[in-house]
Amino acid sequence: MCARRSRAALIRSRCFYLVAALVMVLGNKAVLNAAPDTPLFFVCSQLVVAVVLFRIGDALGYVRLPAVDRQTCAGIWPLIACNVTGLAFNTLCLALVDASFYQVRLSFALG
To answer: What is the C-alpha to C-alpha distance for residues 5 and 19, in angstroms, rounded to an integer?
Structure first.
């Protein structure tokens, strides 16, 4: 019975991720079509909103953020820089191509 629940939970989570990813790509494409000159500002805005939401979630007790010291920040800085660079290139790619081509590219990267 437990295996069936975990399989069903896995299927639900995968379906949620696929739907959420598609909705986010189409929503981002709509915003980038409306304001084509600001893709990097759009990425920075999304990152700031994510940080604010994590801080609010931490204050309300929904998520628990770990304490971060200077040594930890120095250790994960290359990872953060790589992630932000990847987000910027993904947004530039989405801004310059159709959403369908972007989804095909994303499926090749994930598959």
So the answer is: 21
